[in-house]
Amino acid sequence: MELTTDATPEHEASDTIAHKRAETTTVNEVAENPLPTTKSHRVDLEPAYRVTDPARGTTAGHGKAFMLYEGQVIGESKEPAFDAARWLLKRGLALPSDRLTTYRNGMPCVFTTVGRSAALTLEERTNGGLKIRAYREFPADRREKAEGQK
């Protein structure tokens, strides 16, 4: 009579099959509960020029852009990719992992993710340059004062 141990090739094969069945179960569970898909969001930018003196042709608002999402104007900004991302997140229209592309004159100009853009802002330096830094929301009382001054 021949004795077999747990290390026989037949036993190893059955362990491998059981392991593959466990892997298959995991794959099936994932298939039943798929991860959220990443969406792409398009924000079109239009120059936000306002003529202040028609006789001289001078303008105000240079550098700002109107932001349009699905044909709707969502705001005006000097940093539209960052502000549009915050707008999308605040309204629950996008996940942080979603892609955001801004377009000027029908041409793509900024490619990023919503979460990354929402976390950033521009800071003007005293020497005239710009610096990208982490976004901090204004406290409610300062925001209300700023909106009242517009």
What is the gist of this entry?
This protein is α+β, with helices and mostly antiparallel strands and 150 residues long. 33% of the residues lie in helices and 33% in strands. It has helices at residues 9-32, 80-90, 114-118, 140-148, and strands at residues 40-47, 50-53, 58-60, 65-69, 72-77, 99-104, 107-113, 120-124, 130-134.
Describe this structure in words.
By secondary structure, this protein is α+β, with helices and mostly antiparallel strands. It is built from four helices and nine strands, in the order αβββββαββαββα. A five-stranded mixed sheet has the order 5-4-1-6-7. A two-stranded antiparallel ribbon has the order 2-3. The radius of gyration is 27 Å and the shape is globular. Mean pLDDT is about 75; it is low at about 1-15 and about 15-25.
